[in-house]
Write a structure and sequence with these properties.
- By secondary structure, this protein is an alpha+beta fold.
- 58% of the residues lie in helices and 9% in strands.
- The protein is built from three helices and four strands, in the order H-E-E-H-E-E-H.
- The chain has a four-stranded antiparallel beta sheet with strand order 2-1-3-4, with no helix packed on it.
- Helix 1 packs across helix 2 and helix 1 crosses helix 3.
- The protein is rod-shaped, with a radius of gyration of 50 Å.
Length: 204
């Protein structure tokens, strides 16, 4: 079973939480990462007989045998009876088989490259989203710090205004009372402008 078919088997939905492979030795369990291509390469290098996809609870989602017919490439087309001795038919059949193999190989390679490209695009999109989340979080923290600083300055101004405002009122009240007292002491009683009558001397 080639790497492309293993990768295609792994990418089927639902995706596995764990992959168990069995062969000559003890079964091994592999945890899928971001790249299913690397996982498929690892599985192919281990040459297992059975590949099982498990869910989070350890239940088997699907399984495939590497030696099964679906795990191999398709066989070459059989030569029709009666054409075995025809050199032209043999040549044409051989050419068709080669062309078939070439298309099958190119399709597998194209699928492999498409999967790798998709995984890279997904990784890039995930990385961009993470950077945007970090930028938004930093922006929110900056705005919150500015708001907190503005509130602190407003509270300081309010406290200073309250303290200074009381002293100002007391000063204004003291100055007003002092001015009133000075006015009451400085103003003398006024007369009607006539002198007091004098008593005549010598009158009987």
């Amino acid at each position: 079973m080639n790497v492309g078919r293993i990768r295609g088997f792994l990418l089927q939905l639902p995706k596995p939480a764990l992959v168990r492979i069995s062969g000559d030795g003890e079964p091994q369990e592999l945890k899928p990462g971001k790249s299913y291509a690397k996982l498929a390469d690892t599985i192919a290098a281990l040459t297992p007989d059975l590949i099982e996809c498990l869910d989070g609870d350890g239940k088997v989602l699907r399984a495939v045998r590497v030696t099964a017919a679906e795990g191999q490439r398709s066989d070459a087309a059989a030569l029709p009876t009666g054409l075995e001795t025809d050199p032209s038919a043999l040549m044409l059949t051989h050419f068709a088989n080669l062309l078939h193999r070439a298309y099958e190989h190119s399709t597998e390679i194209a699928f492999t490259r498409l999967v790798e490209l998709t995984e890279r695009m997904n990784d890039r999109a995930e990385s961009i989203e993470q950077r945007l989340e970090r930028a938004e979080l930093a922006n929110r923290r900056l705005l919150q710090d500015q708001v907190d600083a503005a509130f602190e300055r407003a509270e300081e101004v309010a406290e200073k205004t309250a303290d200074g405002g009381g002293d100002l009122v007391n000063q204004l009240a003291g100055a007003f009372m002092s001015g009133q007292m000075q006015r009451s002491t400085a103003v003398a009683p006024k007369t009607n402008g006539h002198a007091a009558p004098k008593t005549a001397k010598g009158q009987g």
